[in-house]
Specification:
By secondary structure, the protein is an all-alpha fold. It has one domain. The protein is built from four helices and no strands. Helix 2 runs antiparallel to helix 3. It starts with a helix and ends with a helix.
Length: 90
Amino acid sequence: MDWKLFATIFGSVFVAELGDKTQLATMLFAAKGEISKLQVFLAAGAALVVSTAIGVFAGKFVTELVSEQTLKYVAGSAFIAIGVWTLVRS
């Protein structure tokens, strides 16, 4: 296993997930006193594992059809468009 690559991926995903809708929803569930914190942790963890698996398999499938460079341009353009849209709407 390439630990440098592992740390890079972990760090990128960890920072991207901080303060997003997933974390906020998980905090709201955990804030309810009658709900088991272990159950919230296990359910949220399982949801993240499944969504990550979908992303990995979708990425593998898409790269068989489209070049990596094209994906970078499309993803970058989409992020810029979302940013501009967000600024215009605010």
